[in-house]
Amino acid sequence: MPNQAAHVTVVSRPSRGRARVHVFLLAERCKGCAFCVEFCPKHVLVMSDRFNAKGYHIPQVVDESACTNCQLCQLLCPEFAVYVVTENGSKP
Which of 16, 20, 44, 88 counts the highest number of beta carbons within 10 A? Predict the structure, then answer.
């Protein structure tokens, strides 16, 4: 069986005073609750038509330039499937 551990990476455009951000999704952990999609204030994520190895729908990034690095997706994910890292490698 192929490895289902897909990572979705988003590089947001930096604006004045904001560092570039990478948003990672660990598809194998996601249970499709969609909290990250529902509560993202900038609608960066949507639910995709894809399934992970456990059969859950997983989100995908659709508007990479809208991410403001608020980390709400990371904070609300009960499965720790989403995390945000700044371009220099540190967590914001």
Answer: 44
